[in-house]
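Example 3.2
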Amino acid sequence: MLMLMLILMIGPLDLFAHGFYCDDIPYNDIRAEDFVEYIDLGQQDFEVQFMPVKKHFAGFDINLINQEEGNTGWLLFEVRDENGHKIDEMKVDVSRITAGEWYKVYSNASLKKKRLYTLKISAEDCRTTPYLQIVTPDY
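Structure, written as tokens:
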């Protein structure tokens, strides 16, 4: 009975959280010409619209440059729905993020599949302001 319940929960009931907005591609596998630009989070916030394609959306992967070891400060993530209502916010200590590596930011929001949301990323109180690395949409 226990095994049957577990199979149902994993399969048809789909009760477990999984999935990020995108799948990780190793940083070293990204071609140099595919690094489109970077956003200096000290000069401007970054905003992007997205639409989850999977149920149980779990969060975002980010990649920073100009991120020195031992940096201090915070990255703030804010998710808003189509109507502009804030539905989640996350605060990440920048000292936990390594430049040139993907960092997973987990969301507690219950985002619906195929609905439009806006993500805003900003920096606060950073000794050295990190830059958000942007790559081509293929990644």
